[in-house]
C-alpha cells in the first residue's frame, strides 16, 4: 500500500518537500494544501519587483501550480488552510477558503511548512491604510497599488534588517524620501556595529535618513492630516507611507495546538532528519528551527536556503529515507545600492554572547588586482577562536566580490578550518577576478602571523577607550605625511612614516607600550616587526588601520610637502 | 651574528621571499639579485596593457624598487644575474650586467627564484622580427612598439593555452585578424575537450579563427613578401605578426649546474618547506616544483599564487622558521571575451591518466536567481571518485560567477570533501548573487542522488559511441515539442514530453535499456525516477542534457503547435 503524505504550506519548504517526496516515491499519494493562491514564489525578489528591476510580476512565480502538480503528480489544493492536526487519528482538518467549508484528511506522514509571519508590533496606528509589511505576494501587490495610486512622496521604513535596508533602497530608487527608523544603534544586526558603519555611510550618501536607537512609538496623522511616525524620542517623521520591516516570527500556531514541541527560539523543534516531537510529523522551513553549526545550538534562521534544504530532507524522510540536515552558519548577504554586506558564522557580539574568546582582526584587500581597472577594497572582519585558532566567522562589506569571499569563508566554516590554514586554499587568480593574494589568503596569512606571535592586534574600540581614559600609550602613525593630512590622524598620534622608521626609531621609547597604525594595517605590521625586534617590549598594531577606525579622526591642516605621493599607497 | 640571505631573482617569489625574510628577521642581511630592471611586476596584467584595458605601463610595476629596498632594508641589485653557485663555499658568482663584471657573494642561505622562460620551439623562422613571446616586460614593450609602428593587420597566435587565449582576445580587440593555431584538438588544455567547446564557440563568435590539431611547422615570408605561418597540414596563414604562446619551462640552469636535484617535471625539487637537495639552498616560484593536492605527486604549476606562497615560505624558512607549503589543486581561471573558464582539481582526462575511476556529471544552474535580470547559465563539469565519493575536480564555464564557484570547489578540495556533502555548505543567497539553490549546492544535491543510486548517468561520449555503433538503446527526449524543434534532437530519440510521460509510459519497453535526456538534465532525472519505479530495469540519464552534448543535434522542422511555451523552461 502506498504512503499518503500531507504537506501544510507550499512556498519554499513545502514545494521542495513535495517534489523530493515524489522523486523518492513514485507511488506515494501526495497532497499539498496552500492557503494562498500561488506556490513557491520568490519572496526575496519582491523588493526588486517594487523598484522596477524585475519587470514582470509573473517572473516571481517560480513554479506554476498546474505544471508543478502535473510534473510531480501532486494533489495541489490552493486556498486551503490546514487548521488543526488530530495526531492520534493521523488526520488534519482543512478549510477550503473559497467555500469556507472544512473537511478532514488522513495522512501517513504530515509535513508542516507553515512558514512565518511579519512581526507587527502592538502599537497605535499599525493598522492604518498607509502602513504595510512585505511578507507575501498580497503585501507586495498592496504596496505596488498604493504607490501607483497615491504617488507617495515621503516614506518611513521601520526596521533596519534585510528587508528594511532593501526597501529603503527600493523606495529611494522610486524617488521617495526615505527615513529608516531602527531601534538598535546600527542597521543590519547580523553585522557588528563597526562593520555596519560602512553601510550606514553608504545609505547616508544615497539620501536615506537614518534614525538609529529609536523605537517606534506610534503611527498616526499629524496636524495637517498627513501621515506621521512618532519615535521614542518623541520626534515626528511626516510620511505618506510606512513599511514595517521589524522581522518575522515562525507561524507555529497549528503545531503548538497539536502539542508539537516548540523550541527555545519559538519555532518548531526538529531533529536532524526534520522530525518533530510527534510521530509521523515533520517540519521544515520558516516554521522550524535549524542547528547553528558554530554554536551547536538550535537557532531560528528563516532563510530560503535553510527552507529548501529542510524541505528536501523532509520530503525524502517522509517516504522512508534518512537524509540529514546539517548545521547552518547563519550566512546572510544583502545588496544596499552599490554596496554588498555579508556575514557567515558568528560576529564578534555573538561570539562574546556565547562565552567565546574571539580574536578579531580586519583586512582591506582589493576585490581584484589593483592594476586592473575597477578594483575596490573589500572590508573584512575575521573572528577566530583565540584558544584553538578555528575560524568562527567573517563579515565582508564592499562593492564587488563580497559574495565570493563570504562563500569561501562559509566553506571553511563547514570544514572547521583554522583561520591560519586559509592561506593554503588554492584559489583562482587572474587580474579581472582576484589579486594574486586573494582576500581569503590574506585572512589566512594574517591569521598565521597572529598565531605565530609576529603581531599583536589592538582593536579600535580598545584603543578608543584607552585614548579617552588618558592612557599613557604611545601611538605611532606610519603613513606618509600626505595621507595623514588628507585623512586625518588618531588623536595624539606621533607621525613617523614607515620609510623613516629605522632612522628615527630613537625618537621612541622602547619601554613604553606602543600602538602603531597605518591605512589598512600592512605598513603598521611591518613597523611592529621592526620595532619588536629592535627592543620594543610591547608594541601592538591597530588592526585594520584607519579604514577600520569607526570613530572620528583629527583632521590636519599642515603644509609640509610630501616627497613621493605614490609611496604611501603600496602595501 | 646575523644571517646573510641571498635571493636570485626578484619577480613574484623573490620579492615575497625577501619581504617575508625581513619581517621574520630584522637583523638578517638580505641581498636580492635581479637580472631585469624591475621587480615584482604584474606578468598576468601584460595582455591587458596591450589591449588598452590597463592604461598606464607604470601600474604593472606593482612594487617600486627603491621603496621596496628601503621598506624592507634590502640590498637590491637590479641588472645583476647570479651565474653560478659554489655550494661548498656557500658563495654565488654574480654578473653585473651593466658593467659585465663578475664578483662572488657569500651566503648563509640562498633562495633560487629564477622563474621560467617562454618555450620557443626550434623551428625555422621563430627568430624573425615579427615573432614575439610574452613573458617579460621587455617582450611586452617590444610587442607594444611593433604594433604602434607597424600597425599589423593580421596576426597568428601559436598555442591555445592561457596566454594564447588572452592574446587572441587582446589582438582581436585591437582590431587585428586573429588565427589561433593549436597542436591539440582543443584550446585551454586544463579543460576537458567537451568543456573547451564552449570557449571555442565563443572565440569563433568573436571572430578568432581556430586551427586545432595543427602543429606549427615554420614561420617565414610568403610569395608577396608578407609574413606567414605554415602549419602541420601545409596550410599557410598569412600574418603580419606572430605570438608564440606555447608555454613556459622552468629556468633551472643555475640550479642544475650546481648539482641541485631537478624533479621529474623538469623543475627544482623542493620539500614542503621549499628546501632543495643541497644544504642552505631553497627554491620557490616558477623554477620549482609544487605538490598536487589531489594526486599527491609533484607537479609543475607556474602560477603567481604558487610563487607567492612558496616565496613567502622560503623567506621565513631561510631565517629559521618552519612554514609549510601545502598542495595545490591546479586551480586556473581565464577570461575570454565575455566568457570565463576555470578549473580546480583534476579534469576527467587527468583523473583517467592517474588511474582513477572518475564519476562525471554536468549541471547548468544560473549564476544568480533566474527572475533577477542578467542571469546566465554556468556550465559545470564535476569529477568525483566513484569509489570513495570524494570530489576530485570541477570545471566551470560561463559569463558571470565562475570565479566564485571555482573558489568554493577549491575550498572543498582542500578539505577533501565528498561531492554529496557540498549540499551542506551554507552559501550566501540573495537574488543578485545566487539562486537559492546555488550551483555548488546543486553539485552536492546531484552528487547525493548519484551515490544514493537514484539516478545513473550516461556520458555524452558513451551515448555518442553507442548511437554510432547501432546500439539497441532506446533514447527518450522529455523536452517540450517546441524545444525539440528549435534546438534539435539526438539522433534516434523518441519524444515524450515529461508532463505526458506517466500517461504514455506504455509506449516504451521496460525491459529495454533506455536513456532519457532533456535540456540540462533536471527533467530527465525526474523522468528516470518515474520510469525506474514503474518497472524499467535499466534507465539512465544523459548527464547535462543537450547543453552538455558536444556533438551535432538533428534539427527538426515539424509544425505541430506547442501547448505551453513556458512549461519547458522550468527545472
Number of strands of chain A: 30
Q: In terms of per-residue confidence, which ranges of chain A show pLDDT below 50 for 5 or more consecutive residues? A: 559-571
- How big a fraction of the residues of chain A is strand? 15-25%
Question: What oligomerization state is this entry in?
Answer: homodimer
Largest pleated sheet of chain A? 5 strands, parallel
Shape call of chain A: globular
Radius of gyration of chain A: 27 Å
Largest interface (C-beta under 8 Å): A-B, 96 and 96 residues
CATH topology type of the largest domain in chain A? FAD/NAD(P)-binding domain
CATH architecture of the largest domain in chain A: 3-Layer(bba) Sandwich
Q: With helices defined by DSSP (H or I, 4 residues minimum), what is the helix count of chain A?
A: 15
The number of domains of chain A: 4
CATH H level, superfamily name of the largest domain in chain A: FAD/NAD(P)-binding domain
Amino acid at each position: 500500500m502506498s504512503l499518503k503524505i500531507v504537506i501544510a504550506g507550499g512556498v519554499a519548504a513545502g514545494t521542495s518537500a513535495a517534489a523530493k517526496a515524489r522523486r523518492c516515491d513514485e507511488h506515494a499519494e501526495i497532497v499539498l494544501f496552500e492557503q494562498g493562491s500561488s506556490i513557491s514564489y520568490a519572496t526575496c525578489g519582491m523588493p526588486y519587483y517594487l523598484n522596477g528591476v524585475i519587470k514582470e510580476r509573473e517572473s516571481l512565480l517560480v513554479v506554476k501550480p498546474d505544471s508543478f502538480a502535473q510534473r510531480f503528480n501532486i494533489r495541489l489544493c490552493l486556498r486551503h488552510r490546514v487548521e488543526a492536526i488530530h495526531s492520534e487519528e493521523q488526520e488534519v482538518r482543512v478549510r477550503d477558503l473559497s467555500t469556507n467549508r472544512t473537511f478532514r484528511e488522513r495522512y501517513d506522514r504530515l509535513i508542516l511548512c507553515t512558514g512565518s509571519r511579519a512581526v507587527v508590533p502592538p502599537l497605535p496606528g499599525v493598522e492604518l491604510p498607509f502602513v504595510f509589511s512585505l511578507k507575501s505576494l498580497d503585501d507586495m501587490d498592496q504596496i505596488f497599488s498604493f504607490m501607483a495610486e497615491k504617488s507617495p512622496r515621503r516614506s518611513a521604513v521601520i526596521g533596519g534588517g534585510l528587508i528594511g535596508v532593501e526597501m529603503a533602497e527600493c523606495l529611494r530608487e522610486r524617488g521617495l524620501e526615505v527615513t529608516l527608523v531602527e531601534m538598535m544603534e546600527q542597521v543590519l544586526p547580523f553585522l557588528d556595529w563597526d562593520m555596519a558603519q560602512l553601510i550606514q555611510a553608504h545609505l547616508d550618501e544615497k539620501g536615506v535618513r537614518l534614525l538609529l536607537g529609536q523605537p517606534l512609538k506610534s503611527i498616526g496623522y499629524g496636524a495637517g492630516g498627513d501621515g506621521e511616525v512618532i519615535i521614542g524620542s518623541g520626534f515626528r517623521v511626516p510620511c505618506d507611507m510606512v513599511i514595517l520591516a521589524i522581522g518575522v516570527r515562525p507561524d507555529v500556531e497549528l503545531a503548538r495546538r497539536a502539542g508539537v514541541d516548540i523550541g527555545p527560539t519559538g519555532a518548531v523543534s526538529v531533529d536532524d532528519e526534520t522530525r518533530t516531537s510527534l510521530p509521523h510529523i515533520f517540519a521544515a522551513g520558516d516554521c522550524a528551527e535549524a542547528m547553528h553549526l558554530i554554536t551547536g545550538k538550535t537557532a531560528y534562521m528563516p532563510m530560503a536556503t535553510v527552507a529548501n534544504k529542510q524541505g528536501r530532507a523532509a520530503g525524502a524522510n517522509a517516504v522512508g529515507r534518512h537524509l540529514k540536515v546539517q548545521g547552518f552558519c547563519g550566512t546572510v548577504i544583502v545588496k544596499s545600492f552599490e554596496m554588498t554586506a555579508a556575514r557567515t558564522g558568528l560576529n564578534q557580539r555573538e561570539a562574546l554572547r556565547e562565552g567565546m574568546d574571539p580574536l578579531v582582526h580586519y583586512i582591506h584587500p582589493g576585490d581584484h588586482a589593483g592594476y586592473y581597472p575597477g578594483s575596490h577594497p573589500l572590508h573584512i572582519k575575521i573572528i577566530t577562536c583565540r584558544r584553538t585558532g578555528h575560524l568562527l566567522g567573517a563579515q565582508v562589506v564592499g562593492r564587488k566580490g563580497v559574495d565570493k569571499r563570504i562563500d569561501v569563508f562559509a566553506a571553511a566554516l563547514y570544514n572547521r578550518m583554522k583561520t591560519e590554514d586559509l592561506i593554503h586554499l588554492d584559489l583562482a587568480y587572474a587580474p579581472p577576478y582576484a589579486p594574486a593574494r586573494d582576500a581569503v589568503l590574506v585572512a589566512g596569512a594574517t591569521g598565521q602571523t597572529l598565531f605565530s606571535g609576529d603581531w599583536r592586534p589592538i582593536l579600535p574600540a580598545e584603543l578608543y577607550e584607552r585614548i579617552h581614559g588618558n592612557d599613557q600609550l604611545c601611538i605611532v602613525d606610519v603613513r606618509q605625511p600626505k595621507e595623514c593630512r588628507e585623512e586625518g590622524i588618531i588623536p595624539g598620534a606621533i607621525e613617523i612614516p614607515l620609510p623613516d622608521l629605522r632612522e628615527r626609531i630613537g625618537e621612541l621609547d622602547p619601554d613604553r607600550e606602543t600602538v602603531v597604525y597605518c591605512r589598512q594595517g600592512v605598513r603598521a605590521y611591518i613597523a611592529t616587526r621592526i620595532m619588536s625586534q629592535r627592543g620594543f617590549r610591547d608594541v601592538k598594531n591597530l588592526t585594520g588601520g584607519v579604514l577600520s577606525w569607526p570613530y572620528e579622526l583629527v583632521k590636519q591642516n599642515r603644509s609640509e610637502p610630501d616627497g613621493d605621493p605614490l609611496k604611501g599607497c603600496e602595501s
